[in-house]
Model the fold of this input.
Amino acid sequence: MNIFEAIFLGIIQGATEFLPVSSSGHLVLLPAIFHMTPPDLTMVGLVHLGTLVAVLVYFRRDLWNIVTAVLVGLRERKPMGTTDARLGWFIAVGCIPAAVAGIVLERYFENAYLHPTWVAFFLLVTAGLLVLGEKLMSGDKTFDTMTWIDTIVIGLFQMMALLPGISRSGSTIVGGLLRGLDRSQAARYSFLLGVPVIFGAGLLSLVDIATAPSLTTSLAAYAAAFVTAALVGYLCIYFLLNWVRNHSLYIFAVYCVLLSVSYLLYSFING
Done:
């Protein structure tokens, strides 16, 4: 993979990890459409680490407050004593459904990545979820009034994103909307809930990076992909959190439909 393809891959991962349009769907469909060199495991790992850096830097204060509140709550035997402490436990519990499903159904999910047509179909599911969330949004709940049921439901929506083409941020934002959060709160909780998932993917990718024989020979391309993913990821977090304050998610649903239909037409024309 040359440096321009590496930068393109970094842009794809950095943007689609946080915008509700499915990073996995893009990483499967766009290389097929543009005849790009398939990224190796090291490249995939580095762009995941780039997005991890983006979310850790952007939410550094929130994460510090949450971790501190959880530790203080445990020390004082009041684990749910503050909103930040409650958020910490909600995030931990909300990650359980995806973690369990990922372990139990790992082979099935990996097989889905081998079928771009399935990925295109699941992009349509993402579009449908975004429309559903907008239609049923009530928006009267805050982090202070969230319940265990809320975080479990949102966690189940995150589990759906194990299927390539279903957006993690999109599905969890929709889960939040259906449970009464407004767009801004739902998006913020979605990003915080995604931190353990992105962190876990980043740790796993370190194994591939450490054992990569081509790391030194392709250093420029790897570095370009990592830096691009981090910068674009940070900007996209900022963009989405500001966008959802005054705009709907319909534009992302339209984009998912257009990408899905474009690939299906491309696949049909090329046999």
About this structure: The CA atoms of residues 184 and 241 lie 6 Å apart. The chain has a mean pLDDT of 87. The chain has one domain: 3-269.
